[in-house]
Amino acid sequence: MNGQSYHAKAKTAWGDALPDWVQALAEEADRTNARRVAERIGYSNAVVSYVIANKYPGDVERVAEKVRGALLGAKVMCPVMGEMDRDYCLDQQKIGDTGASSVRARLYRHCRGLGGVEKCPNSRIPEGQR
Amino acid sequence: MSNHQTNQIQGPVALKNVAAFMAMTTRLIERSPHLPGFGVCHGPSGFGKTYASIFAQNRVKATRIEVGDSWTRRTLLHRVLREFGERPKERTPIAELAEMARGALGQDSSRPLIVDEADKLVDKGMIEILRELQEESGAPVILIGEEKLPTKLLAVERMHNRVLHWFSAEPCDLDDTRVLAGAFAPKVEIKDDLLDTIRMRSGGRARRIVVNLDHAAVVARNAGLKTLDLKLWGAEDFYTGEPPAPRHVEAYPRRAGGKAVA
Fold it and tell me: Taking CB atoms and an 8 Å cutoff, what residues of chain A touch B1?
């Protein structure tokens, strides 16, 4: 990482607008390393570098939510499982209907608003997408 | 849809079984590497085993499967893999599926696998596949089943000494019933005498207690009451889970004017 800490890089790239979650991500990457922190938020270390460099072309808000859940202790109220870490919540939304358990089926319906249940306000799944 | 009781309960209610299940899960995760990695939770239906496990699942980010009646070894492994976001091909050999599942579980051996309805696996002679998965991945596996599950497991020679922790779900006590009342009938204050009767008539089963509490909420609302005790409950029926008695309809005439059939 050519001598510079992730934190310094983030400061240069984001300037005064450095969000708390990018700071948390950079600090954690300095404390451990980019690969470890990437694993914790469920992305590749390339994404971690891109985000710190303020150049990630994908869904930045989703990365932000994952970081807030994994590193900043953000919680949401899941209608099925109760209080839940935000990053785990996002992971659950990604998993389709696997048929593995009734809990999975309920999560699937609540995340998408299927079968007469109201779509969970924590869902980031676009309308109509399965 | 009867949505009379505005669903304010979100997620499992913190009963004693929930705490005990969580304690077992933590013990399994933090065990020393040389110790066996199976936990077994058993108890009659309606004791809240599944709800306790959902609470723990959420806390430790466990993977969960509920064994279906139609499942084969292949379905079992497929479902486990799909919970890890993998999509194995339909024709992948079982040995390879097992290898993949072992790899997925072993990625983070602090995340347990929770297997609900585990007695079905023993009945089908499929428990061995889980034993292999547990031993090779090192991830804890928690089996949940009915009261006879431990006895069934004892019959499988290689299984029973691999269980680190046996946990029998307990029936609800009065404290638990109060907690349930707070969650499922929050608008009415139910006195202890009625709560305790509900608990006894429900056999301590959380599932039946909840049905009775829901009924209590309806009774109180219909009568415009804020508090309810045994006296005010009067002759209302308790939900005990007993099926209705047979009615001997053959004793009645089948047609108007017809004779009763003996």
Answer: 116
pLDDT digits (tens, 9 = 90+) for B46-79: 999 999 999 999 999 999 999 999 999 999 999 9
pLDDT value of position A67: 93
Residue B49, beta-bridge partner list: none
Structure tokens at B82: 């799909």
Is pLDDT above 90 for A17?
no
How far apart CA B253 and CA B241 sit, in angstroms, is: 31
Could you write out the DSSP letters of every residue in A1-66?
Answer: -TT--HHHHHHHHHGGG--HHHHHHHHHHHHS-HHHHHHHHTS-HHHHHHHHTT---S-HHHHHHH
Q: Under DSSP, is residue B101 helix (H, G, I), strand (E, B) or coil?
A: helix
**pTM (two decimals):** 0.85
In this structure, the dihedral spanned by the alpha carbons of residues B13, B19, B23 and B26, taken in order and rounded to 10 degrees, is 30
Question: How does strand B141-145 pair with strand B38-42?
Answer: parallel
Among the listed residues B168, B194, B171, the one whose alpha carbon sits nearest the alpha carbon of residue B181: B194
- Count H helices and E strands in chain B, helices first: 12, 7
Average pLDDT for B117-134: 94
Q: Do A103 and B54 touch (CB under 8 A)?
A: yes
pLDDT at B236: 82
Q: Tell me the per-residue pLDDT of B168-211, one tens digit each, with 9 for 90 and over.
A: 999 999 999 999 999 999 999 999 999 999 999 999 999 999 99
DSSP conformational letter for A95 = S
ipTM reported for the complex surpasses 0.85: no
Specify burial of residue B74 (Cβ count, 10 A radius: 0-12, 13-18, 19+): middle
CA neighbor of B194 nearest in space, from B220, B239, B228 = B228
Region class of B182: left (phi > 0), else alpha (psi between -120 and 50), else beta: alpha
- Do A100 and B65 count as a contact with CB atoms less than 8 A apart? yes
Chain B partners within 8 Å of A104 (Cβ): 64, 83
